[in-house]
């Protein structure tokens, strides 16, 4: 069996990427261990073909076209697929919601979309209008694909609703590299330290968290907030982190640090130092960072969105706040900062819950069974 993953976020020593890239790398490594051939194709800074833990990674140089970059990238990807298929026949190509827009309808390999949350999903979840060009591409991509995997039931059902396209999907939760996360040592916890991990962008609710932290500081002057994650571009390629820093300066908020995108292997030690992990997302398709924090037995405050509730809602290990309520974020964080007993109640069963629900072998087997079923 030979599977190709289409992603431009595969982690390497030079670049740190978000949750999808981390997910693909971990899943690919586990599939290779099961004697599955795995290749990765994506758009990067330079042309390069390398092997990472048995995974063939083909990096294609970013287009210098002024217009039509997406189409040019597709031409490069199609050329590489044809080249690979000639010497190592491809069974499946897995991509995101947009990936197959300009692929042929009929192919020798099967095309699989794994729904991590596409343009229609996030635009509608955030109450925004869809962009014509991205909407067009996504609709074409779904019509070209053969099979669909959703990372939660919610993202699958909502995507069907927003696309107005009745496709069948199977739900398989994301694999999580739990062996990299350990049970935290309470001695290393820093009092009043809050931690956010994730891409620094609008949908992650970071602006709400910063506005809430303004009031937290009035109640708890010693409180600090570390923000870990890569920056995001918005509004004509402006930095979202710079936008947030303006808010911080205008409100004269102290104690906030932007640590940027840190290497994956140092994330556990940063989680261990936090007293509370906060994930105030406005919209998500899954919740990788919550699971990682739970696996370390941390107290967590998170927004009451459906994907979070689907994956950890019955764990009694997360304190949920109303999605758009700054006041409720403040109340929930304040409760945990003042009550060690409540923090301990949340973290008591969180590690066991995550390890049992997200057993790596079980999820890898679900992926293998899916691919075997459509062979």
UniProtKB/TrEMBL annotation:
Keywords recorded for this protein, A-Z: Transferase
Top-level taxon: Bacteria
Keyword NAD: no
Gene Ontology MF term list: glycosyltransferase activity
Domain Glycosyl transferase family: from-to ranges: 184-350
Cited Pfam families: Glyco_transf_4, Glycos_transf_1
One GO term of the biological process aspect: lipopolysaccharide biosynthetic process
Residues in Glycosyltransferase subfamily 4-like N-terminal domain copies: 17-177
PANTHER family according to UniProt: GLYCOSYLTRANSFERASE WBBK-RELATED
Protein name per the record: Glycosyl transferase family 1 domain-containing protein
Species assigned in the record: Polaribacter aquimarinus
